Amino acid sequence: MNVQIIPFPAAEVGLPEGVESVDEIHSPEMMPNFFNALNMLQQPFEELIEALHQDFVVAGMFLPWATESAAKFGIPQIVFHGTSFFALSAGESLKLYKPWEAIPTQTDGKDSKFVIPGLPDKIEMTMSQLSEDYKGETLFSEINEKVRQSEVNNYGVWINSFYELEPAYADHCPGKKSVAYWSCFASK
Asked: Cα dist. 136→68, 130, 133, 139 in Å?
């Protein structure tokens, strides 16, 4: 195996030296800097693809530009999600159906419950559990849209799960036998 390392440009975007993951960021104001640094990895990544003549690319979901990079070199790319079928299904159902919009406005709407539709199980949430990213334009909602577009335009999606762990949610997706996950939501 030949491991190549691309230096993370923390200092170039104003992050403390050595910060290379979201877990190491202690201030929400630094999140845009982190994602700017991720975007700065595209050019050196493409230089590696060109130099090493890769056959395919597997890239984490927060590197949506990798789909464009792989296409530039005519090689397939797969998006990797470090989460489960359940989490991805719940998130997609929230985006598609926006069930919180049906809750009447109350003086204290944070305790209002709603069911996430379209899932194999009855899953309830409260308004206080719902991320602001679903309700409006935020940095993460913009990034999630870029991730979604990269998933549509790539070869497939790998999910950090396996059938025996969550069969109802693997079966929830008709395309579970293939690598492509989001195709199960295309008809909704």
From this structure: 26, 12, 6, 10
Statement: residue 185 has pLDDT above 80: no
Q: How far, rounded to the nearest angstrom, does the alpha carbon of residue 97 sit from its chain's CA centroid?
A: 18
- Taking the whole predicted model, whether its pTM rises above 0.70 is answered as yes
pLDDT, residue 135, reads: 81
Using a 10 angstrom Cβ sphere, with 0-12 exposed, 13-18 middle and 19 or more buried, the burial of residue 42 is: middle
Q: What is the pLDDT of residues 81-96, one digit of tens each?
A: 888 999 989 988 998 8
Residue 153: HSE in the Cβ half-sphere, 13 Å Cα cutoff: 17
> In this structure, what are the phi and psi dihedrals at residue 62, rounded to the nearest 5 degrees?
-85, 15
Reported as type and span, the H/E element at residue 186 is none
78 close to 155: Cβ distance less than 8 angstroms? yes
Owner of token pair 């159902």 = 93
Instruction: Please report, for residues 27, 42, 88, 109, 119, the alpha-carbon distance to residue 100 in angstroms, rounded to integers and kept in the order given.
Output: 29, 37, 18, 10, 16
Beta strands in 40-184 (DSSP E): 57-60, 77-81, 113-115, 124-126, 156-159
Between CA 185 and CA 175 the distance in angstroms is: 10
Q: What is the pLDDT of residues 153-162, one digit of tens each?
A: 888 888 888 8
* Other CB atoms within 10 Å distance of the CB of residue 165: 12
